[in-house]
Amino acid sequence: MAHLNISNVTLSFGGLKALSNVDMKIEPGLITSIIGPNGAGKTSMLNCISGFYHPTRGDIYYKDKKLTHASPHQVSNMGISRAFQNLELFSGLSVLDNLLLARHQNLKYSFLHAVFFYGKASRIEAENRAYVEDVIDFMELEANRKSLVGNLSYGLQKKVEVARALTLAPDILLLDEPMAGMNQEEKEDIVRFVMDIQKERNITVVLVEHDLGVVMDISDRIYVLDFGEVIGSGTPEEVAQNPKVIEAYIGED
Questions:
Q1: 3-class DSSP assignment, residue 4
Q2: Per residue in 80-95, is it b (16+ CB within 10 Å) or e — as a string?
Q3: Residue in 87, 67, 90 with CA at minimum distance from that of residue 172
C-alpha cells in the first residue's frame, strides 16, 4: 500500500496549468525524487502535498487520510513535514530555539500549568527538549546549538532547515532542493544526512533536486515532470533510459 497516493492532480492558476493529471505513489521507507526542468511543476507538487496549494482537481491521500483540502498545519499534524528551498528560519534566534519553536504544536498543557510550570507542563517541555537535542546530535549541530542562525554559513543554515523539519517527527519528509547553492563538500554532507534519515530513522523521503548525479545515486524511485505532466517514472536506471526524459530533461549529445 502506498504511503502517499496522488491521483489525477491538476493545479491551475487562471489559464495556466502548473500540474496536469499527475499520478504518483510514494512507497513507505523509500527515497522518491521528483525531477524536471525549471517550471516543470516540482515545487507546485510539494505545495499541494503540504497544503500550501489545494489542487483544482484530483485527490491526495496519506494512508487513509485525505489531504486534498487540508491546511499546512493539519498536514504537519498527520506526519508530513517539509524543508523549504528558501530558508524558513528565525535568523535572530539560536539553532536550539529555532528547533524548539518547531515543536510548539506538541506543547499541549493548560494555561495554569504554563504559569506555574509544574507537572504536565514541566514534563512535556522536558520531553520536547530531549527530542530536539536528539535531532541536534543526529544532524551534528552540537557546536552550533547556541549560535544565532543568521551568523551561520549558508550551508549550515540549510542543514538547520532540514533539522527543523526533522524535529516534527515526520513519517514523510519533503525536501525542496536541500542542496541548492551549496559547494561540493556541503552537498556531500547533506546527501549523507538524507540517506541516514531514511535508513536510521525509517522516514520516507520525497526529494526535489536539480543535481541529477545526486538523484541517480540515492533515489529508489524517480518521477519526471515536464510542463506539469509526468513524462516518466521508475528506478534511476529506467528513468535514465526513457527517451522522453532524455529529450525533455537530460538532453541528447
A1: strand
A2: bbbbbbeeebeeeebb
A3: 67
**Structure confidence at residue 250 (pLDDT):** 56
Alpha helices in 88-170 (DSSP H): 95-102, 111-116, 120-138, 154-166
- The string of pLDDT tens digits covering residues 89-107 is 888 999 999 998 888 665 5
pTM of structure? 0.87
CA dist 194 and 192 (Å) reads 6
Encode pLDDT of 123-133 as tens digits: 677 788 888 99
Give CA–CA dist 106/172, Å, rounded: 18
Mean pLDDT value of segment 223-232: 94
Residue at 247: amino acid letter: E
* In the chain, domain spans: 1-79+170-253, 93-169
CATH number of the 1-79+170-253 domain: 3.40.50.300
